[in-house]
Specification:
By secondary structure, this protein is an all-alpha fold. The protein contains 15 helices and no strands.
Length: 362
């Protein structure tokens, strides 16, 4: 009994959610996801336009491949940075999506649907086309511009969707996000047309569709650092995120300054999204689908939900990128196309389920 009480303090039970029944169950979930990520990563390193035996991949990674190997460059210099970036972007978008859904108390919240990814993409494309920060665009200018674009887009959507009483509705939130996304897409197109340079078309298409093909070792430090720090901070803020599930008034009564807390978390999520989009382009629906899948497994307590969502997001995007590289090989399909093809039907299903719940409550 004493162990059960201790577990309840570690994994608080928020309204509408439940914590894992036993620590072993939660540990098992994490172990399964880590194994799944390792298996997905190995498959992504082995399969592609050139298929490599998994045993050779393991030997190369562990340093047991003796003598020159024709596959070493493919595994270590081409595919491994791409797998690591895919895992980081998938984990980050899933964590941001989980946080935004709690922050605005809406299951349809997502960095892509709320215009955050579009804002980051538009800012990054502007830097590319206008040639700002030449020489340091990859490491400094693009991530900085992406963060600023993501934050400004989120502020606009927040202002447009907020009702006089301070709450949100699904309709206002989605309409605001779609409207801001369309405006930013038009702005991106305008910048591209005005530039009148054909060599910008491919780069702009990369940002709008999302892809991991440009991954290199020298560009991984920033997204990995931001992901680690951002996720750790959000896990530390798990209790206030749980309080938001009670509602605006309930969270205020329990001692949470909701306005200040939301402002701070908006900045943090915009920073994470901006840095990730700066390196991968706008990849949609990961932050929408993965949090729902994670809640089905471990419930809604954010201290346990966020790590599971991060691992699920990493596995999902690594597998999606593997499919993007192999489904039409040797053609490399932007991974954002595949996530949209799977996320679109999922989004419609969520809308249908929400409508059914509203009808049942009426």
């Amino acid at each position: 009994m004493r162990t059960s009480a201790k577990r309840d303090r570690r994994c608080p039970r928020p309204p509408g959610g439940k914590a894992p029944r036993t620590p072993l169950a939660y540990g098992t979930v994490l172990a399964v996801l880590i194994v799944a990520l390792a298996a997905a990563g190995t498959a992504a390193l082995a399969w592609g336009s050139v298929n490599i035996p998994p045993t050779d991949v393991v030997d190369i990674l562990t340093g047991q491949a003796h003598g020159p190997s024709p596959y070493r460059t493919i595994v270590l210099d081409v595919r491994l940075p791409r797998v690591i970036l895919g895992a980081a972007v998938g984990a980050g978008l899933a964590v941001v999506g989980t946080t935004l859904q709690a922050l605005v108390r809406n299951p349809l919240a997502d960095p892509f649907l709320l215009g955050v990814s579009s804002g980051a993409s538009a800012a990054a494309v502007s830097v590319i086309v206008l040639g700002l920060g030449a020489g340091m665009a990859t490491t400094v200018t693009i991530p900085t511009a992406s963060f600023a674009g993501a934050f400004l887009a989120l502020l606009v959507v927040y202002a447009l969707a907020r009702e006089p009483g301070g709450g949100f509705t699904t309709t206002r939130l989605i309409l605001a996000g779609v409207a801001v996304s369309y405006v930013l897409a038009a702005l991106t197109s305008l910048i591209l047309v005005v530039s009148a340079r054909a060599d910008h078309l491919k780069e702009v298409l990369y940002w709008t569709l999302g892809g991991l093909g440009s991954a290199r070792w020298d560009m991984l430090a920033l997204p990995l650092t931001v992901l680690a720090v951002g996720t750790a901070l959000l896990i530390a803020l798990a209790r206030p995120l749980d309080l938001l599930l009670v509602g605006e008034e309930g969270a205020t009564v329990l001692g949470l300054d909701t306005a200040r807390f939301r402002a701070g978390v908006f900045v943090l999520t915009s920073l994470v999204t901006g840095v990730l989009v700066a390196h991968s382009g706008a990849i949609g629906f990961v932050g929408l689908m993965v949090p729902h899948a994670a809640r089905m497994v471990v419930g809604a307590a954010h201290r346990v939900l966020l790590p599971v969502a991060a691992l699920m997001g990493a596995v999902f995007l690594v597998v999606a990128d593997l499919a993007a590289r192999t489904v039409a090989a040797p053609q490399d399909i932007p991974v954002g196309v595949l996530t949209a093809l799977t996320g679109g039907p999922f989004f419609l299903w969520l809308l249908r389920r929400g409508r059914a719940r509203e009808g049942a409550q009426a």
